[in-house]
Specification:
Elements (H helix, E strand, L loop, with lengths): L1 H21 L2 E2 L4 E2 L4 E3 L4 E3 L4 E2 L4 E4 L8 E3 L4 E2 L4 E4 L3 E3 L4 E2 L4 E3 L25 E3 L4 E2 L4 E2 L4 E2 L4 E2 L4 E2 L7 E4 L4 E7 L4 E4 L8
Parallel strand pairs: 1-4, 2-5, 3-6, 4-7, 5-8, 6-9, 7-10, 8-11, 9-12, 10-13, 11-14, 12-15, 13-16, 14-17, 15-18, 17-19
Antiparallel strand pairs: 19-20, 20-21
């Protein structure tokens, strides 16, 4: 127990020095544990009291803004997550992102079969910004696709592939993800969404 506490304090101290120097902004009491890859940290902003666990891939490619990846306060991002941005990936306050999730705003065009550049190295010149609203929860292994906006206080089920935006106070799951519940302020409870009316 004492050893874990010492490790935690050491990691906090190292993070506060290393990332305050390299990132555009790195908040108080935030820490990153054993990242896999951080590319263009000067285009990344991280708020206060953020915990990012081991294996994170924070990658800014071909940055179109001074701040491309912005993570709010009191966010926790669990192990082996990939967050890749070109224009804007915004994660608001009090969001939980569980392990093995991916969030990207980069599109790799494949249509030109005569282009000798491998598809993985092609980047479409489009704004496909991604945002995750305050207080939302992203389940294990979920993928948030380019151009998606997730509202506040949403829950995305484990293993879901979110290809369309999700409104505030929604539960969504599946491949592709569909909204299954919405919070009704009139009824003061979560209600099941009719699948015939599900057009997220």
């Amino acid at each position: 127990m004492l050893l874990n506490r010492v490790k935690s304090l050491f990691n906090l101290a190292v993070s506060q020095v290393l990332y305050k120097l390299s990132m555009k902004s790195f908040g108080t009491r935030s820490r990153i544990i054993s990242p896999m890859l951080i590319v263009n940290p000067k285009n990344i902003v991280i708020g206060n009291n953020v915990l990012i666990r081991n294996g994170i891939r924070l990658e800014v490619v071909d940055p179109q803004k001074d701040t491309v990846i912005a993570i709010g306060n009191n966010v926790n991002i669990e192990q082996n997550c990939h967050i890749i941005g070109r224009v804007s990936v915004t994660i608001e306050n009090n969001v939980t992102i569980t392990g093995n999730c991916s969030i990207v705003d980069v599109i790799h065009p494949y249509e030109d079969i005569h282009d000798v550049t491998k598809i993985g190295n092609r980047i479409a010149d489009v704004d496909a910004s991604v945002s995750i609203g305050e207080g939302s929860f992203i389940g294990y292994g979920a993928h948030i696709a380019p151009g998606v906006s997730i509202g506040k206080h949403c829950v995305v089920g484990a293993g879901s592939v979110v290809t369309k935006s999700i409104p505030d106070y929604s539960v969504a799951s599946g491949v592709p993800a569909k909204v299954t519940k919405r919070y009704s302020f009139d009824e003061q409870k979560w209600v099941t969404v009719n699948s015939n009316m599900n057009n997220i």
